[in-house]
Amino acid sequence: MKHTPHQYVHGHSDRESDRLRYQASKLAELLHHDTRYPPKSRVLEAACGVGAQTVILARNSPGAEFVSVDISAESLAAARDRVSHEGILNVTFRRADLYDLPFGPETFDHVFVCFLLEHLPDPILALNNLKRILRPKGIITVIEGDHGSALLYPDSPHAHRVIDCLVELQRQTGGNALIGRELWHLMMDAGFRNVTVSPRLVYSDESRPENVEGVKNIFIAMVDGVRETAIRQGLIDPGSWDEGIRDLHRTTEQGGTFCYTFFKAVGRKEG
Amino acid sequence: MKHTPHQYVHGHSDRESDRLRYQASKLAELLHHDTRYPPKSRVLEAACGVGAQTVILARNSPGAEFVSVDISAESLAAARDRVSHEGILNVTFRRADLYDLPFGPETFDHVFVCFLLEHLPDPILALNNLKRILRPKGIITVIEGDHGSALLYPDSPHAHRVIDCLVELQRQTGGNALIGRELWHLMMDAGFRNVTVSPRLVYSDESRPENVEGVKNIFIAMVDGVRETAIRQGLIDPGSWDEGIRDLHRTTEQGGTFCYTFFKAVGRKEG
Question: Which residues lie closer than 8 Å to A209 by C-beta, 6 or more apart?
Fold first, then answer.
């Protein structure tokens, strides 16, 4: 089955690339510290984008051999530059469509997917395609967020409204920004075994300035990135948008708190 | 200042006592594993209720001397029975009003409060009262939940409606069931120093049957405990209530997931 490239709700601007790299480095420890691949193992990183996670994965498992694929030639070029700039040698890049992967069955020992399923109309089909190229007993790791997990103080309906606009726009392009909580059933429905899901909560208050910066530069920047589209599509007016973003920023100021939960799932192919 | 005892939104039934003890034992590791008091230190457990946490605290710090207080003579009697039944000897019980504590200033090295502030109209006043009886550089530990953190799959507006009924009833008795996210500012506003807040997320899916039982016996039982009151007060009709509870149970069945986040804050009195 052949699909056209999925639309990426956050766009492909330089600002978005910066945001993705910032996100990957800040969240690296929380999300990736327990992902380590043995020497000589063959790992497919599906949808590597601009290489934000690639650098972290490859560094954490210097003996493993990574093949990182993406459908966007532009993103791949950026990923290649980045990895080369960092002097990392254990990654091969290849342009590939997730729905028509140029690999034989049972080619890889491991598959790694991060922030991808949330953008796909049929995540179970994607997981099945990835299972096909995984060897028997091979392991898949899937990481996704869930915008419904955002917990704000002070709470604000205006802030939730701008988050909901992003959720709606992602839904319109066939995605699901509330997918984190679904990883368990998606992995089971795709036929993986020994599935374990571990939620990873990020919390910020004034005593954690690094997390506060993360909320601003990752979450709020991501939401605000769809401002023009949301307004153009009539989901919200500019005044309400700005009010919502202001209230999101309020959670990063005096006395404010912010929580967000990522979900990491690991499963095994039958064998 | 003298206050009348606060109303306890969950009531004082045997079923509620069982629920509280179940809750305390299942959540003990997650919430209390990092609470340890040195030998000879004097610890006030404020609002010990039926002694659900008391047993755990006293066991984890066998050399510390606990004074556990509550305003309800009935709860205290149950707590005494429980602690005595367990052969625990380092706890003294005393009936006391949190707003008129029968202890001199700077009496205790540590104060421990769990699931209390959520029921109080003025949590900062309560924290200030507790600070008074804490010695300089003494440490306070506060644990609270936040019903807004409930993340459901399948998600359901009916389920959120019954949760919202509990939040509203608690609000009507002067409490705040969304207080977890506020611990940071409450501790700061009460003048504590070196405050750190650590969220503790509980997650359940079918691979974690113990957590699934916890969702049923702790969270859903707690919500369903206010059924009659919510209906009597006209917040919801019986059919909608039952639909909401059914949808909450659905999260504990095939493919379902449930998340809830507790918040633990630790702070120091100036000295």
Answer: none
